[in-house]
Specification:
The complex is a heterodimer. Chain A is mainly β. In chain A, 0% of the residues lie in helices and 58% in strands. Chain A has strands at 3-5, 11-13, 18-19, 21-23, 27-28, 35-38, 46-56, 62-68, 71-72, 77-85, 91-95, 99-101, 110-120, 123-132, 138-147, 154-159, 166-176. In chain A, strands 4, 5, 7, 10, 11, 13, 14, 15 and 17 form a nine-stranded antiparallel beta sheet that branches. In chain A, a hairpin with a 5-residue loop joins strand 1 and strand 2 (11-13). By secondary structure, chain B is α+β, with helices and mostly antiparallel strands. The N and C termini of chain B lie far apart (55 Å). The chains are: A mainly beta, B alpha+beta. Chain A binds chain B through residues 22, 24-25, 27, 31-41, 161-163, 165, 173, 175, and chain B through 2-12, 14, 16, 27, 30-31, 34.
Chain lengths: 177, 58
Amino acid sequence: MAVTIDGSASVTINSGAVLGITSAPAQASTSGVSIDFTSIPSWVKRITVMFSGVSLNSTGAFLIQLGDSGGVETSGYDATFIIGSNTSSNTVTASVAGFPFYSGTNTFSVSGSMIITNITGNTWVEQGVFNNSVTTPFVTSTAGTKTLSATLDRVRITTTTGTDTFDAGSVNILYEG
Amino acid sequence: MTHRIVVNVETGVTTQVEYTAEEQAAHDAAVAAQQAEAAAAEAQALADAAAPAPNEAQ
């Protein structure tokens, strides 16, 4: 097996996999209805989706969707999220359209991360925790699973309505084999 | 126009992709439907608030 140590804090083996964690370029989530991270390598086994102070112009929940060479898959998910807050604790919401989590109102800004892990084949499982800590604190937890029709190569960050627009914060992903 | 952001993690290139006319029409229709639903819910809430309580009606 050929091993290359290139001096840039990463090691590449001849299957193309990079040992260690790779960061995509962070994106300002200040416009648009979705943010897609594409061309994710086929050897990736774990993806971390990160939010920092992300806000929407409305009240749709956030939604993370996976995709492959056929595009982003918008059905077939088995996922739920729960809200813990002073006013709506234990509210549970399910989704078959993606991995969801609470966004609050348009004045909220949400931070946290979701870990999406390849359990076998094209089946992925996720867990995530996010919060809003401004005037109305809440924490939202999410978990779920999705089997893609082919090898994962993209992740979409969007909303349950599909029409809400991002208006603050930043997002990014980390990926590793 | 509505748009999406696409980040190619292999190249690091970020692109803003504008909706096609067809996507924009679907987006606008969905927003209009959401607004109509919200307006109907608000109207119903106002009607409920204005209606006399059962004891008051007797």
